[in-house]
Amino acid sequence: SGSTPSQRRWSRPRARLLLLRRKKRTVFKLVTGQPPLPRRKNGTRRETSAKTQQAVFERSLRARLAPGQHFWDAAGATVDDIRAAVGCFAAKPSVEVFGSLLQGTSIDGSDVDVRMVFGTVGRSQAVRYLQLLMKALYRPPASRTLRLVEAILTAKVPILRVRSLRQGSSIHADVSVGGSQQGACDVAVHDVLECDVRARDLVRMVKHWARQRGLNKAYHGYPSSFSWVLLAIFYLQQLGMLPPVNRRKDVWKRLGNPPSLQELLRNFLVFCRQIQYGCGMSVTTGKFMPKEDAVLFIEVPCEKGQNAARSVRFPQWREVKSHASDTLSTLDSQEGHVWSVLGEQKLRDPHVRAWSSESE
């Protein structure tokens, strides 16, 4: 090829080094959406801007909180198994997904909310249909893929808790009976969260924070996961990041420079700590409303007068405020970081590690 063996011996490592640098620059651009900062003449890289560091961090946080493809595949398989189990019913009900999957607020490990739609049914009829499903779960083929965990038939909304038996799946599903019109509130939540990408990120952070501390158990007197979703949406409406549900999205003016995710979480906890007894909120109008007969009142969108936080009791809400104060103390400390309050010790995104090693 015209070059001496010595030249070829030195050119190959240099070619590999140039290729490695090119790959790292490509990874950096995929993560941050912009090329890396140029190097100085002495070979050192300029200090990374705060905006770039924030973009890398929020991208890693978003990837950590959002459920992976395995979750969606397992959830879809569980819903198909439930459809097969109710296929033996004479009424032939349709099976619909609602809740966090329809809202787009699922986190890793979320339950799947499934509803058998029979039209207009009373509570006694709903219990009877769930009892029929219980019998079907003990017979093949449903017994091979689903297992009954708990039957809560005395609640206001009777449900069956089932678990998937598929290999590698740990999905739990709550099966209830209702009408198709009951999914309007989930669609409204999904649409309003589409207005700002950080809104969905904050909702997932809040749900993860509440689950890590056991503050999302409605049957123990705490706010439900849906209550935390609506509370986060109402807080963002007060900031101007999200519009009210009853307002047209095309005429709403978005907030120009929204805070970072860590600032949003911190200010949300301050907001929760300041909520007083008898405070009512409506995400439909985006305004406060007096409700002196409830510890916490969060109106369900598209269902006027319905309280999503009707399960909250005063001692449990006081405990929520105490946890919020502890988290704020952690965030305000010198070593405080959002990963520490979410139960994470370090970034787990390999792209971020590749960028970090390149910038050192």
From TrEMBL:
A Pfam short name: MTPAP-like_central
GO biological process: RNA 3'-end processing
Annotated Poly(A) RNA polymerase mitochondrial-like central palm domain residues: 89-178
Molecular function terms from GO: nucleotidyltransferase activity
Gene3D superfamilies: 1.10.1410.10, Beta Polymerase, domain 2
PANTHER family found in the cross-reference section: POLY A POLYMERASE CID PAP -RELATED, POLY(A) RNA POLYMERASE GLD2
Protein name (Swiss-Prot/TrEMBL): Poly(A) RNA polymerase mitochondrial-like central palm domain-containing protein
Phylogenetic placement of the source organism: Eukaryota, Sar, Alveolata, Dinophyceae, Noctilucales
